[in-house]
Amino acid sequence: MERVTGVGGIFVAARDPERLARWYSLQLGVDPAPDSYEVSSWWQDAGPTVFAPIAHDGEHVAGPAHSWSLNFRVADLDAMVEQLRRNGVAVEVDPEVYPNGRFASLQDPEGNPLQLWQPEGADRRGPV
Questions:
Q1: Alpha carbon distance 61, 54 (integer Å)
Q2: Per-residue model confidence as pLDDT tens digits over 29-43
Q3: Helix, strand, or coil here: 115?
Q4: Around 126, how many Cα atoms within 13 Å sit in the side-chain half-sphere?
Q5: Is 19 exposed, middle or buried, given 0-12, 13-18 or 19+ CB atoms closer than 10 A?
Q6: What are the φ and ψ backbone dihedral angles of 93, each rounded to 5 degrees?
Q7: Is 104 helix (H, G, I), strand (E, B) or coil?
């Protein structure tokens, strides 16, 4: 059976797309979409990715105005949280350490929910 090999793009409706792209680039290091086919798209490190349909009113969605949530893997959650807070971004670190890692929650400038995840356990070790 053929399978997809990963996520090829995430497209987010935005009131101010250029401003939002700059925020993701400056705060999280996500390169904006290239302006030409001569420039490579953002490359991410290989690692675990969760694809999970969730309830439309679930805890990972910020109310009825939002129908999605992004979770970004990070190598050092504490360092990323400190960097974001230095830049004036409000971040809430989940005090619980889960078997699959640690998490923090924040919102982008348009109120979209984001989660940072420092993988542990099986997700840190890789596929078996």
A1: 9
A2: 999 999 999 999 999
A3: strand
A4: 3
A5: exposed
A6: -90, 130
A7: strand
**3-state DSSP call for residue 20?**
helix
C-alpha distances in angstroms, 103 versus 33, 74, 77? Answer: 27, 10, 8
pTM here is 0.83
All structural domains of the chain with their residue ranges:
17-125
The domain covering 17-125 belongs, at the CATH homologous superfamily level, to 2,3-Dihydroxybiphenyl 1,2-Dioxygenase, domain 1 (3.10.180.10)
**116 near 77, Cβ under 8 Å?**
yes
pLDDT tens-digit readout, 1-36: 888 878 888 888 899 999 999 999 999 999 999 999
Instruction: Determine the residue type at 127.
Output: P
Residue 45, classed as helix, strand or coil, is: coil
